[in-house]
Amino acid sequence: MKERKKQYFHPIEVTLDVVCGKWKGVILCLLQENDYRFGELKDQLYSVTPKVLTQQLRELEEDGLITRTVYPQVPPKVVYSLTPYGKDLEDTLRMMEKWGQSHQQRVGDNFNEEVSEAELS
Amino acid sequence: MKERKKQYFHPIEVTLDVVCGKWKGVILCLLQENDYRFGELKDQLYSVTPKVLTQQLRELEEDGLITRTVYPQVPPKVVYSLTPYGKDLEDTLRMMEKWGQSHQQRVGDNFNEEVSEAELS
DNA sequence: ATAGGTAGTTACTTTTTGGATACCATGGAC
DNA sequence: GTCCATGGTATCCAAAAAGTAACTACCTAT
Q1: In this structure, is residue A36 part of a structural domain?
Q2: Which Gene Ontology molecular-function terms are recorded (chains A, B) (predicted)?
Q3: Helix/strand/coil (H/E/C) assignment for every residue in A18-82
Q4: Cβ(A35)–Cβ(A81) under 8 Å?
Q5: Is residue B90 left, alpha or beta, with left meaning phi > 0 and alpha meaning psi from -120 to 50?
Q6: Tell me, in Å, how far CA of A78 is from C1' of C28?
Q7: A116 located within any domain
Q8: What are the DSSP calls for A74-116, one per residue?
């Protein structure tokens, strides 16, 4: 799994440490809207494998962002939902979403210009 | 370096793709306050090696978040600063910083208990 | 001619992360 | 007794990211 004992120099590292992972951002965004079952997440993430999805979910759980609720049924039903701390990320996630959108557009349009090395003295 | 041609399922992936890197978050936070020279960043990040710092800066530059300005002097002087797009992340970064602080406090309590137990043995 | 300061680079190794594929447990329906 | 659906595990492997240590280029000042 993931070791998270390191020392941080800056508080933003804490957040990034918790949110950086191939699928974590999207998972958190999805869960802002709805609770989801394992399979529902898997379907929405499309290309994620069960192993990796489990990993991401477990880490988010360890970090206190989501809860895993098992309904004792057959076939099993497991629902993932946000904790209050996960919900606290909502605004941040939305801003990141927005920035991502505009950045994506930008790259689509005019990312051909090279940034030149300005020469000053 | 880093390949960034993948397809995104969700706009937040764009942002995370650009910001996730061992030192990128901190670098961006620092640059919100001030422009910095290579050596100044290196000193503030303390444990970063020049290779990795260069990598992180180059990728941020490629992604259009920062600018690299070379002053043609000897010894060289290279200053890194934010582009408008980098500045657009300011609010987001601040929110992440804040969340990180509270999260750290939260786990800080548990962590301290664990540490003190360990210290007793 | 030698040393010094800045901003790197190069080559190599290790660690971390993610992916492919196959398999497992449960209990009810048939 | 076999099949099904769900929610996973178990192995093994590849790719990506980060770390280590040594080296470079430049001109200036001594």
Answers
A1: yes
A2: DNA binding
A3: HHCCCCHHHHHHHHHHCCEEHHHHHHHHCCCCHHHHHHHHHHHHHCCCEEEEEECCCCCEEEEEE
A4: yes
A5: alpha
A6: 19
A7: no
A8: SS-EEEEEE-HHHHTTHHHHHHHHHHHHHHHHHHHHH--SPPP
- The pLDDT tens digits of the residues spanning A53-73 come to 999 999 999 999 999 999 999
* Inside any domain, residue B75: yes
> Would you state the pLDDT for residue A121?
36
CB A21 within 8 A of CB B38: no
Whether B50 is covered by a domain: the verdict is yes
CATH code, B78 = 1.10.10.10
CB-CB contact of B36 with B80 (8 Å): yes
Tokens of A116: 């030149």
CA B74-B75-B77 angle, 5° bins: 100
Distances (CA, A) of B8 to A70, A97, B12, B77, B90: 31, 12, 9, 37, 23
Instruction: For residue B12, give the nearest of A15, A26, A120 by CB distance.
Output: A26
DSSP letter, residue B109: H
For residue A116, the Cα-to-chain-centroid distance in whole angstroms is 34
Distance of B84 CA from D13 C1′ (whole Å): 42
Q: Note down the domain range covering B50.
A: 11-88
- Give me the residue label for tokens 């390191």: A6
The domain total for chain A is: 1
Taking CB atoms and an 8 Å limit, are B18 and A46 in contact across chains?
Answer: no
